[in-house]
Design goal:
Layout: H1 3-13, H2 23-29, H3 35-46, H4 59-67, H5 76-87, H6 93-98, H7 100-118
Helix pairs in contact: 1-4, 1-7, 2-3, 4-5
């Protein structure tokens, strides 16, 4: 996830109080069997610092975060529901494979428009 995506994610999460769950405890809920995979996943989550989007109750924030992360952190179905909600249409599973960049671009465009619409007028 690049800097711009993190800025957008921060804006999506700005008013939310996230649960106080350690990354290690969260990774335990994923049911990963391989210790190396668990350690790598914890390090990945640590890289987000305070942007713990996977703990959010905001389905759009969770979907946005997961869409730009190659490692599955939340259930795929949750990401799909969030993306569908952001785009206001059903996104077919194959679109995440064949047209992933297009989906990412459309989601980013839609989220930015939504955030701009909520911003107070200058």
């Amino acid at each position: 996830m690049n800097y711009e995506n993190k800025k957008i994610l921060k804006e999506l999460l700005k008013d939310e109080i996230l649960p106080n769950v350690s990354n290690k405890d969260y990774v335990e809920t994923l049911g990963l069997k391989n210790e190396f995979t668990k350690i790598r996943t914890i390090k990945l989550l640590d890289s987000y610092e305070e942007l713990k989007w996977w703990l959010s109750t905001n389905i759009k924030a969770k979907a946005y975060g997961q869409l730009f992360e190659s490692k599955l952190i939340i259930p795929f179905d949750d990401m799909c529901k969030g993306v569908n909600k952001i785009l206001e249409r059903s996104v077919f599973t194959h679109e995440y494979g064949i047209y992933l960049e297009k989906v990412r671009n459309k989601v980013t465009e839609s989220v930015l428009k939504s955030l701009n619409d909520k911003s107070p007028e200058l």
